[in-house]
Design a protein that fits this description.
The chain has 407 residues and is α/β, with parallel strands linked by helices. It contains 14 helices and twelve strands. Helix 6 packs across helix 7 and helix 10 runs parallel beside helix 11. The longest helix is centred in the middle third of the chain and has 18 residues.
Length: 407
Protein backbone atom coordinates (compact mmCIF):
# COMPACT_ATOMS: atom_id res chain seq x y z
CA UNK A 1 0.00 0.00 0.00
CA UNK A 2 1.17 3.49 -0.64
CA UNK A 3 -0.01 7.04 -0.59
CA UNK A 4 0.71 9.86 -2.99
CA UNK A 5 2.91 12.31 -1.14
CA UNK A 6 5.82 11.07 -3.23
CA UNK A 7 5.98 9.97 -6.82
CA UNK A 8 8.16 7.32 -8.43
CA UNK A 9 8.66 6.50 -12.13
CA UNK A 10 7.32 3.26 -13.51
CA UNK A 11 9.77 0.47 -12.74
CA UNK A 12 9.58 -1.36 -16.06
CA UNK A 13 8.93 -0.67 -19.70
CA UNK A 14 5.45 -1.25 -21.08
CA UNK A 15 5.17 -3.72 -23.98
CA UNK A 16 3.23 -2.66 -27.08
CA UNK A 17 -0.37 -3.70 -27.49
CA UNK A 18 -1.07 -6.71 -29.70
CA UNK A 19 -4.72 -7.25 -28.96
CA UNK A 20 -7.74 -5.00 -28.28
CA UNK A 21 -9.07 -4.61 -24.74
CA UNK A 22 -11.43 -7.45 -23.98
CA UNK A 23 -14.36 -7.35 -21.60
CA UNK A 24 -16.17 -10.17 -19.77
CA UNK A 25 -19.19 -11.74 -21.37
CA UNK A 26 -21.54 -10.36 -18.70
CA UNK A 27 -22.42 -7.42 -20.98
CA UNK A 28 -21.87 -6.92 -24.74
CA UNK A 29 -19.12 -4.37 -24.49
CA UNK A 30 -17.11 -3.02 -27.38
CA UNK A 31 -13.40 -2.51 -26.64
CA UNK A 32 -12.16 0.92 -27.41
CA UNK A 33 -9.06 1.82 -29.31
CA UNK A 34 -6.32 0.79 -26.99
CA UNK A 35 -3.31 3.04 -27.65
CA UNK A 36 -0.40 1.47 -29.47
CA UNK A 37 1.73 2.05 -26.43
CA UNK A 38 -0.72 0.42 -24.06
CA UNK A 39 0.15 -2.96 -22.50
CA UNK A 40 -0.90 -6.01 -24.50
CA UNK A 41 -3.51 -8.27 -22.95
CA UNK A 42 -2.29 -11.86 -23.10
CA UNK A 43 -2.91 -14.88 -20.88
CA UNK A 44 0.62 -14.46 -19.57
CA UNK A 45 0.08 -10.78 -18.71
CA UNK A 46 -3.24 -11.44 -16.99
CA UNK A 47 -1.29 -12.59 -13.93
CA UNK A 48 1.16 -10.12 -12.43
CA UNK A 49 4.65 -11.18 -11.49
CA UNK A 50 4.63 -12.36 -7.87
CA UNK A 51 5.89 -9.76 -5.47
CA UNK A 52 5.06 -6.66 -7.55
CA UNK A 53 2.67 -5.12 -5.01
CA UNK A 54 5.14 -5.93 -2.22
CA UNK A 55 7.83 -3.99 -4.05
CA UNK A 56 5.41 -1.06 -4.45
CA UNK A 57 4.68 -1.14 -0.73
CA UNK A 58 8.39 -1.10 0.09
CA UNK A 59 8.95 1.69 -2.44
CA UNK A 60 6.49 4.04 -0.72
CA UNK A 61 7.17 3.06 2.87
CA UNK A 62 3.74 1.51 3.39
CA UNK A 63 2.59 -1.95 4.22
CA UNK A 64 5.97 -3.10 5.52
CA UNK A 65 6.27 -6.51 7.07
CA UNK A 66 6.68 -6.29 10.84
CA UNK A 67 7.05 -9.30 13.12
CA UNK A 68 4.59 -9.72 15.99
CA UNK A 69 6.09 -8.66 19.33
CA UNK A 70 5.53 -12.05 20.94
CA UNK A 71 7.24 -14.11 18.22
CA UNK A 72 10.13 -11.67 17.96
CA UNK A 73 10.97 -11.97 21.63
CA UNK A 74 10.15 -15.67 22.11
CA UNK A 75 12.93 -17.85 23.51
CA UNK A 76 14.22 -20.69 21.29
CA UNK A 77 12.75 -24.14 21.85
CA UNK A 78 15.28 -26.75 23.05
CA UNK A 79 14.49 -30.39 22.14
CA UNK A 80 17.14 -31.92 24.45
CA UNK A 81 20.13 -30.71 26.46
CA UNK A 82 22.51 -31.75 23.70
CA UNK A 83 20.32 -30.57 20.80
CA UNK A 84 20.65 -27.26 19.03
CA UNK A 85 17.88 -24.64 19.59
CA UNK A 86 15.00 -24.98 17.18
CA UNK A 87 14.50 -21.97 14.90
CA UNK A 88 11.73 -19.57 15.87
CA UNK A 89 8.62 -19.67 13.67
CA UNK A 90 8.51 -17.23 10.77
CA UNK A 91 6.58 -14.04 11.63
CA UNK A 92 3.20 -13.52 9.98
CA UNK A 93 2.80 -10.91 7.26
CA UNK A 94 1.34 -7.66 8.56
CA UNK A 95 0.15 -5.21 5.91
CA UNK A 96 -1.33 -1.97 7.19
CA UNK A 97 -1.41 1.31 5.24
CA UNK A 98 1.18 3.72 6.59
CA UNK A 99 0.75 7.12 4.90
CA UNK A 100 3.99 9.00 4.33
CA UNK A 101 3.88 12.29 6.28
CA UNK A 102 4.49 15.64 4.57
CA UNK A 103 8.11 16.64 5.18
CA UNK A 104 8.69 19.55 7.55
CA UNK A 105 10.90 21.23 4.93
CA UNK A 106 9.24 21.45 1.55
CA UNK A 107 11.28 19.83 -1.24
CA UNK A 108 11.92 21.79 -4.42
CA UNK A 109 9.03 20.14 -6.26
CA UNK A 110 6.58 20.90 -3.46
CA UNK A 111 7.88 24.47 -3.19
CA UNK A 112 7.06 25.02 -6.87
CA UNK A 113 3.56 23.70 -6.24
CA UNK A 114 3.15 26.05 -3.26
CA UNK A 115 4.01 28.97 -5.53
CA UNK A 116 1.32 27.93 -8.02
CA UNK A 117 -1.21 27.48 -5.21
CA UNK A 118 -0.38 30.91 -3.80
CA UNK A 119 -0.82 32.50 -7.23
CA UNK A 120 -4.11 30.67 -7.75
CA UNK A 121 -5.52 31.89 -4.43
CA UNK A 122 -4.30 35.47 -4.88
CA UNK A 123 -7.76 36.96 -5.51
CA UNK A 124 -9.25 35.35 -2.41
CA UNK A 125 -6.22 36.14 -0.28
CA UNK A 126 -5.88 39.77 -1.32
CA UNK A 127 -9.47 40.53 -0.28
CA UNK A 128 -8.76 39.15 3.19
CA UNK A 129 -5.24 40.57 3.57
CA UNK A 130 -6.39 44.16 3.01
CA UNK A 131 -8.14 43.96 6.39
CA UNK A 132 -4.76 43.82 8.14
CA UNK A 133 -3.27 46.95 6.58
CA UNK A 134 -4.39 49.17 9.47
CA UNK A 135 -2.65 49.87 12.76
CA UNK A 136 -5.31 48.95 15.32
CA UNK A 137 -6.79 45.71 16.60
CA UNK A 138 -10.36 46.63 17.43
CA UNK A 139 -13.94 45.66 16.68
CA UNK A 140 -13.79 47.49 13.37
CA UNK A 141 -10.99 45.13 12.23
CA UNK A 142 -13.02 42.06 13.20
CA UNK A 143 -16.10 43.42 11.39
CA UNK A 144 -14.08 44.01 8.20
CA UNK A 145 -12.58 40.53 8.53
CA UNK A 146 -16.04 39.01 8.91
CA UNK A 147 -17.18 40.69 5.69
CA UNK A 148 -14.05 39.54 3.84
CA UNK A 149 -14.48 35.93 4.96
CA UNK A 150 -18.13 35.89 3.96
CA UNK A 151 -17.24 37.37 0.55
CA UNK A 152 -14.72 34.52 0.14
CA UNK A 153 -17.62 32.06 0.61
CA UNK A 154 -16.26 30.79 3.91
CA UNK A 155 -19.84 30.43 5.10
CA UNK A 156 -21.56 31.77 8.21
CA UNK A 157 -20.70 28.87 10.53
CA UNK A 158 -17.04 28.70 9.54
CA UNK A 159 -16.71 32.50 9.72
CA UNK A 160 -18.15 32.60 13.24
CA UNK A 161 -15.85 29.77 14.28
CA UNK A 162 -12.76 31.48 12.86
CA UNK A 163 -13.56 34.85 14.45
CA UNK A 164 -14.20 33.34 17.88
CA UNK A 165 -11.02 31.26 17.70
CA UNK A 166 -9.01 34.24 16.45
CA UNK A 167 -10.14 36.48 19.32
CA UNK A 168 -9.15 33.77 21.79
CA UNK A 169 -5.70 33.43 20.21
CA UNK A 170 -5.19 37.22 20.21
CA UNK A 171 -6.08 37.34 23.90
CA UNK A 172 -3.82 34.41 24.81
CA UNK A 173 -0.82 35.74 22.86
CA UNK A 174 -1.46 39.40 23.70
CA UNK A 175 -0.91 40.31 20.05
CA UNK A 176 -0.82 44.04 19.33
CA UNK A 177 0.04 44.22 15.62
CA UNK A 178 -2.40 43.47 12.77
CA UNK A 179 0.32 41.42 11.04
CA UNK A 180 0.48 39.16 14.08
CA UNK A 181 -3.31 38.77 13.97
CA UNK A 182 -3.05 37.76 10.33
CA UNK A 183 -0.60 34.98 11.25
CA UNK A 184 -2.91 33.82 14.04
CA UNK A 185 -5.77 33.67 11.53
CA UNK A 186 -3.63 31.45 9.27
CA UNK A 187 -3.02 29.11 12.20
CA UNK A 188 -6.73 29.02 13.04
CA UNK A 189 -7.66 28.29 9.42
CA UNK A 190 -5.05 25.50 9.20
CA UNK A 191 -6.48 23.89 12.34
CA UNK A 192 -10.01 24.10 10.90
CA UNK A 193 -8.89 22.48 7.62
CA UNK A 194 -6.73 19.81 9.27
CA UNK A 195 -9.50 17.12 9.31
CA UNK A 196 -9.67 17.40 5.49
CA UNK A 197 -5.99 16.45 5.08
CA UNK A 198 -5.87 12.73 4.37
CA UNK A 199 -3.81 10.76 1.82
CA UNK A 200 -5.36 8.55 -0.83
CA UNK A 201 -4.06 5.06 0.01
CA UNK A 202 -3.89 2.42 -2.71
CA UNK A 203 -3.18 -1.26 -2.13
CA UNK A 204 -5.56 -2.31 0.62
CA UNK A 205 -7.69 -3.92 -2.10
CA UNK A 206 -6.67 -5.29 -5.50
CA UNK A 207 -7.92 -3.61 -7.52
CA UNK A 208 -8.82 -0.45 -5.63
CA UNK A 209 -12.04 0.70 -7.31
CA UNK A 210 -12.44 4.49 -7.40
CA UNK A 211 -15.77 5.90 -8.55
CA UNK A 212 -15.64 9.57 -9.62
CA UNK A 213 -18.72 11.83 -9.81
CA UNK A 214 -19.36 15.54 -10.41
CA UNK A 215 -21.55 18.05 -12.18
CA UNK A 216 -21.03 19.07 -15.81
CA UNK A 217 -18.15 21.51 -16.19
CA UNK A 218 -16.46 20.79 -12.86
CA UNK A 219 -13.45 19.23 -14.59
CA UNK A 220 -14.27 15.64 -13.68
CA UNK A 221 -12.80 13.84 -16.71
CA UNK A 222 -9.73 16.10 -16.75
CA UNK A 223 -9.17 15.41 -13.05
CA UNK A 224 -9.40 11.66 -13.72
CA UNK A 225 -6.67 12.05 -16.34
CA UNK A 226 -4.45 13.95 -13.91
CA UNK A 227 -5.14 11.43 -11.14
CA UNK A 228 -4.21 8.63 -13.54
CA UNK A 229 -0.88 10.37 -14.11
CA UNK A 230 -0.28 10.53 -10.34
CA UNK A 231 -1.07 6.84 -9.96
CA UNK A 232 1.05 5.79 -12.95
CA UNK A 233 4.01 7.85 -11.73
CA UNK A 234 3.71 6.09 -8.37
CA UNK A 235 4.01 2.72 -10.11
CA UNK A 236 0.35 1.64 -10.03
CA UNK A 237 -1.30 -0.12 -12.97
CA UNK A 238 -4.57 1.61 -13.87
CA UNK A 239 -7.66 0.60 -15.86
CA UNK A 240 -10.12 3.34 -16.89
CA UNK A 241 -13.86 2.78 -17.22
CA UNK A 242 -15.64 5.21 -19.58
CA UNK A 243 -19.04 5.02 -17.89
CA UNK A 244 -19.99 8.56 -18.99
CA UNK A 245 -21.96 7.24 -21.97
CA UNK A 246 -24.37 10.20 -22.16
CA UNK A 247 -22.10 13.14 -22.94
CA UNK A 248 -20.92 13.49 -26.50
CA UNK A 249 -17.18 12.84 -26.92
CA UNK A 250 -16.76 11.89 -23.24
CA UNK A 251 -15.47 8.46 -24.24
CA UNK A 252 -13.04 9.99 -26.72
CA UNK A 253 -11.83 12.53 -24.15
CA UNK A 254 -11.08 9.79 -21.63
CA UNK A 255 -9.41 7.79 -24.40
CA UNK A 256 -7.01 10.68 -25.02
CA UNK A 257 -6.01 10.61 -21.35
CA UNK A 258 -5.57 6.82 -21.56
CA UNK A 259 -3.21 7.32 -24.49
CA UNK A 260 -1.22 10.05 -22.73
CA UNK A 261 -0.78 7.92 -19.60
CA UNK A 262 -0.35 4.60 -21.47
CA UNK A 263 -3.15 2.83 -19.61
CA UNK A 264 -6.02 0.61 -20.73
CA UNK A 265 -9.64 1.68 -21.09
CA UNK A 266 -12.92 -0.24 -21.17
CA UNK A 267 -16.00 1.36 -22.73
CA UNK A 268 -18.88 0.91 -25.13
CA UNK A 269 -20.59 3.49 -27.32
CA UNK A 270 -24.02 4.51 -26.03
CA UNK A 271 -24.14 1.60 -23.60
CA UNK A 272 -25.44 1.34 -20.08
CA UNK A 273 -23.09 3.09 -17.59
CA UNK A 274 -23.64 0.44 -14.94
CA UNK A 275 -22.79 -2.36 -17.40
CA UNK A 276 -19.56 -0.62 -18.42
CA UNK A 277 -18.63 -0.18 -14.75
CA UNK A 278 -19.33 -3.87 -14.05
CA UNK A 279 -17.21 -4.99 -16.97
CA UNK A 280 -14.32 -2.71 -15.99
CA UNK A 281 -14.23 -3.93 -12.38
CA UNK A 282 -14.40 -7.55 -13.53
CA UNK A 283 -11.62 -6.94 -16.06
CA UNK A 284 -9.52 -5.16 -13.43
CA UNK A 285 -9.76 -8.18 -11.13
CA UNK A 286 -8.88 -10.60 -13.92
CA UNK A 287 -5.86 -8.56 -15.04
CA UNK A 288 -4.62 -7.89 -11.49
CA UNK A 289 -4.79 -4.12 -11.89
CA UNK A 290 -3.93 -1.95 -8.90
CA UNK A 291 -6.63 0.66 -9.61
CA UNK A 292 -9.88 0.84 -11.59
CA UNK A 293 -11.07 4.44 -12.16
CA UNK A 294 -14.76 4.74 -13.08
CA UNK A 295 -15.74 7.97 -14.86
CA UNK A 296 -19.47 8.61 -14.36
CA UNK A 297 -21.73 11.05 -16.21
CA UNK A 298 -21.79 14.61 -14.94
CA UNK A 299 -25.14 15.68 -13.52
CA UNK A 300 -26.82 18.22 -11.28
CA UNK A 301 -27.89 16.96 -7.84
CA UNK A 302 -31.37 18.35 -8.53
CA UNK A 303 -31.83 15.85 -11.38
CA UNK A 304 -33.18 13.07 -9.19
CA UNK A 305 -33.49 10.47 -11.95
CA UNK A 306 -29.83 10.95 -12.83
CA UNK A 307 -28.80 10.71 -9.20
CA UNK A 308 -30.67 7.39 -9.08
CA UNK A 309 -28.55 6.27 -12.03
CA UNK A 310 -25.43 7.01 -9.98
CA UNK A 311 -26.79 4.91 -7.12
CA UNK A 312 -27.38 2.10 -9.61
CA UNK A 313 -23.76 2.26 -10.78
CA UNK A 314 -22.61 1.94 -7.17
CA UNK A 315 -24.87 -1.09 -6.61
CA UNK A 316 -23.68 -2.82 -9.79
CA UNK A 317 -20.02 -2.18 -8.93
CA UNK A 318 -20.67 -3.91 -5.62
CA UNK A 319 -22.01 -6.93 -7.51
CA UNK A 320 -18.73 -7.14 -9.43
CA UNK A 321 -16.71 -6.81 -6.21
CA UNK A 322 -18.43 -7.12 -2.85
CA UNK A 323 -15.94 -4.72 -1.23
CA UNK A 324 -16.20 -2.04 -3.95
CA UNK A 325 -16.31 0.86 -4.55
CA UNK A 326 -13.44 1.51 -2.19
CA UNK A 327 -13.35 5.24 -2.87
CA UNK A 328 -16.18 7.52 -4.05
CA UNK A 329 -14.78 10.89 -5.08
CA UNK A 330 -16.62 14.09 -5.98
CA UNK A 331 -14.98 16.71 -8.21
CA UNK A 332 -16.13 20.23 -7.33
CA UNK A 333 -15.37 23.55 -9.01
CA UNK A 334 -13.80 26.02 -6.56
CA UNK A 335 -15.36 28.91 -8.49
CA UNK A 336 -18.88 27.91 -7.47
CA UNK A 337 -18.43 28.80 -3.80
CA UNK A 338 -21.38 27.88 -1.60
CA UNK A 339 -22.93 25.95 -4.48
CA UNK A 340 -20.00 23.54 -4.17
CA UNK A 341 -21.01 22.93 -0.56
CA UNK A 342 -24.56 22.16 -1.70
CA UNK A 343 -23.15 19.64 -4.19
CA UNK A 344 -21.11 17.98 -1.46
CA UNK A 345 -24.24 17.58 0.69
CA UNK A 346 -26.35 16.13 -2.14
CA UNK A 347 -23.75 13.68 -3.50
CA UNK A 348 -22.70 12.60 -0.02
CA UNK A 349 -26.31 11.80 0.89
CA UNK A 350 -26.68 9.75 -2.31
CA UNK A 351 -23.29 8.03 -2.58
CA UNK A 352 -21.53 8.28 0.82
CA UNK A 353 -18.49 10.20 -0.43
CA UNK A 354 -15.03 9.25 0.79
CA UNK A 355 -13.06 12.14 -0.73
CA UNK A 356 -13.06 15.34 -2.77
CA UNK A 357 -11.05 16.82 -5.62
CA UNK A 358 -11.30 20.63 -5.70
CA UNK A 359 -10.51 22.16 -9.10
CA UNK A 360 -10.15 25.63 -10.65
CA UNK A 361 -9.02 27.43 -7.51
CA UNK A 362 -6.98 29.73 -9.73
CA UNK A 363 -8.60 33.04 -10.51
CA UNK A 364 -11.43 32.68 -8.02
CA UNK A 365 -12.26 34.93 -5.08
CA UNK A 366 -14.22 32.10 -3.40
CA UNK A 367 -11.40 29.87 -2.16
CA UNK A 368 -12.78 30.01 1.37
CA UNK A 369 -15.36 27.34 0.50
CA UNK A 370 -12.99 24.68 1.88
CA UNK A 371 -13.48 26.21 5.32
CA UNK A 372 -17.25 25.89 4.90
CA UNK A 373 -16.85 22.24 3.87
CA UNK A 374 -14.59 21.56 6.86
CA UNK A 375 -17.15 23.06 9.21
CA UNK A 376 -20.27 21.33 7.81
CA UNK A 377 -19.16 18.22 5.85
CA UNK A 378 -15.54 17.38 6.76
CA UNK A 379 -14.96 14.99 3.85
CA UNK A 380 -11.25 14.53 3.07
CA UNK A 381 -9.83 16.63 0.23
CA UNK A 382 -7.41 14.33 -1.57
CA UNK A 383 -6.34 16.77 -4.30
CA UNK A 384 -6.66 20.46 -5.21
CA UNK A 385 -6.13 21.93 -8.67
CA UNK A 386 -5.11 25.42 -9.80
CA UNK A 387 -4.86 24.99 -13.57
CA UNK A 388 -5.19 22.77 -16.62
CA UNK A 389 -1.69 21.28 -16.65
CA UNK A 390 -0.91 17.83 -15.27
CA UNK A 391 1.28 19.31 -12.54
CA UNK A 392 -1.52 21.67 -11.47
CA UNK A 393 -3.23 18.93 -9.43
CA UNK A 394 -1.55 18.08 -6.13
CA UNK A 395 -2.25 16.53 -2.75
CA UNK A 396 -3.97 18.81 -0.24
CA UNK A 397 -2.14 20.22 2.77
CA UNK A 398 -4.10 22.28 5.32
CA UNK A 399 -1.01 24.24 6.37
CA UNK A 400 0.00 25.02 2.80
CA UNK A 401 -3.51 26.08 1.86
CA UNK A 402 -3.87 28.43 4.85
CA UNK A 403 -0.45 29.99 4.26
CA UNK A 404 -1.08 30.42 0.53
CA UNK A 405 -4.45 32.00 1.17
CA UNK A 406 -3.19 34.56 3.69
CA UNK A 407 0.38 35.17 2.54
Amino acid sequence: MFSFFKKKPLSSAVPPADEPVSTPASAPTQPVNVPETAPAITPESATKEPGTIDRLRQMFGAGKTTPPPDSASAAPVVAAPAAKPAPAPAPAMVTAPVPVPVPAVLPEERAHWFGRLKAGLRKTGSNISTVFTGTKIDEALYEELEDALLMADTGVKATQHLLADLKRRVKDTKATEPSAVKELLAQSLADLLQPLEKPLVIGRFTPTVIMVAGVNGAGKTTSIGKLTKHLADAGASVLLAAADTYRAAAREQLGVWATRNTVEIVSQEGGDPAAVSFDAVTAGKARKKDVVLVDTAGRLPTQLHLMEELKKIRRVVTKADATAPHEVLLVIDGNTGQNALAQVRAFDDALQLTGLIVTKLDGTAKGGVLAAIAQERPIPVYFVGVGEKLEDLETFSAREFAQALLS
